[in-house]
Design a protein that fits this description.
This protein has about 210 residues and is of the alpha+beta class. The protein is built from two helices and 13 strands; from the N terminus they run αβββββββββββαββ. The N terminus is likely disordered.
Length: about 210
């Protein structure tokens, strides 16, 4: 390689290196996390691939302090941050990968859903007619926000166009029924992630 070619090649290598280093590692499953299921919106809403309860982040860059969202179900890629199982006593929803449970941050409508120790009083849930109700106040249901699903930062970068919206504790009501219905589903056995249906949920600048 000539001297004139070395400098451009070095610059290109330096530009590429950070993006490689920044890729999060994808930890192996622990505590049977790979046998747990999605908690998936029973209806597709505005995401044909369905939305699943999700912790923000990916791999070893998961934010355990963040509020849960619902995110495009991660069929065909690492998804242990979407795997949830009922606790052995059937009273809580555990994320086996993190040995913690889904809990309400408060007993008021609008309270976030967060990750806490499974013994926390706010980590009790009951399932009734496909709704997930706070055990200490069954008038409150886990509810998907009444907003359009938005592209995530990764959804803007990658062709899968991942989408998300907030999830919170809200009053159980007929008006919110379609956003309060949940199903427990195993991920699809796919080697590659699904691409979104053509033309679905365009965003400005697409």
């Amino acid at each position: 390689m000539t001297k004139s070619a070395i400098l451009p090649a070095l610059i290109a290598a330096l530009l590429i290196a950070p993006s490689v280093i920044a890729q999060p590692a994808e930890p192996d499953a622990v505590n049977g996390a790979d046998m747990a299921t999605y908690v998936r919106a029973a209806l597709p809403l505005d995401e044909p691939r369905h939305l699943c309860i999700d912790l923000p982040g990916h791999g070893d860059m998961i934010d355990l302090e963040a509020a849960f969202t619902v995110h495009t179900c991660k069929d065909g890629l690492w998804n242990l941050d979407q795997r949830i199982a009922w606790t052995d006593d059937g009273a809580g929803l555990e994320m086996p990968q993190y040995s913690k449970c889904l809990a309400a941050a408060g007993t008021n409508p609008g309270a976030a859903i967060v990750l806490k120790d499974c013994g926390d009083p706010m980590a009790g849930w009951t399932s009734e007619n496909a709704r997930l109700k706070l055990a200490s106040d069954t008038s409150l249901c886990m509810t998907i926000a009444d907003t359009k699903s938005e592209l995530t930062p990764g959804g803007k970068r990658f062709p899968q166009r991942y989408r998300a919206r907030a999830v919170s504790l809200e009053s159980c009501s007929d008006d919110a029924l379609e956003r309060q219905l949940w199903s427990f589903m195993q991920p699809l056995d796919l080697a590659e992630p699904l691409l979104p249906p053509s033309g679905s949920l365009p965003y400005e600048g697409e």
